[in-house]
Amino acid sequence: MNTINDVSITEIPKVHDERGVLAVIEKDIIPFNIKRVYYLYDVPSDSFRGGHAHKDQQSVVIALSGSFDVIVDDGKSKKRIMLNKPNQALYIPTNIWREIDNFSSGAVCLVLASTTYDENEYIRDYKDFILSVR
Ligand code: TYD
Predict the structure, then answer these.
(1) How far, in Å, CA of 116 to CA of 108, rounded?
(2) Which of 47, 83, 90, 99 has the lowest CB atom count within 10 Å?
(3) Tens digit of pLDDT for each residue in 78-132?
């Protein structure tokens, strides 16, 4: 079973010159084949997102703009990770409960996912999650 030690941050390579920064995500920095990309924007600062784990889906979360906190929880330990750089990629494996809060104004949260959307692979009840990782 995955633990929060399997959650990791990778730096996305970038090309910086006087015209700005170009960041590149190529398949070697994502540990799965991307099947879906979605993003959150216009998020009120007091909003609380996530609140689920995934049986099958691995994800990479990127703060494309602004900042927010991702809380990852393996049922035994949890940690709060602030994402505030568009070239930081947070990898979250399966069976990790995640919550996202503390959104800055203008924050955009990009998620690269290893699966297409399937509600059946979500665990949305925290008690069910705890039972599933015990
Ligand atoms: P939800 O899982 O609550 O979003 P978050 O994890 O960011 O808090 O999803 C919100 C709604 O969007 C819910 O009705 C499911 C739907 N949805 C899709 O239709 N497709 C998707 O790829 C995702 C991620 C969610």
Answers:
(1) 21
(2) 47
(3) 999 999 999 999 999 999 999 999 999 999 999 999 999 999 999 999 999 999 9
**Euclidean distance between CA atoms 134 and 30, whole angstroms:** 28
Q: How far is CA 6 from the centre of its chain?
A: 13
User: Which residue in the list 52, 86, 87, 121 is annotated as catalytic?
Assistant: 52
Query: What is d(CA 129, CA 15) in angstroms, rounded to the nearest whole number?
Result: 41
* Atom from ligand 1 closest to the CA of residue 52: 6
Which domains does the chain show, CATH number per domain?
4-133 (2.60.120.10)
Q: How far is CA 69 from CA 11, 13, 61, in A?
A: 17, 22, 11
Q: Is 84 helix (H, G, I), strand (E, B) or coil?
A: coil
Dihedral in degrees, nearest 10, Cα atoms 86, 116, 56, 118: 120
98 Cα–ligand 1 center, Å: 13
DSSP states of 20-71 = EEEE---GGGSSS---EEEEE-S--TT--EEEEEESS--EEEEEEES-EEEE
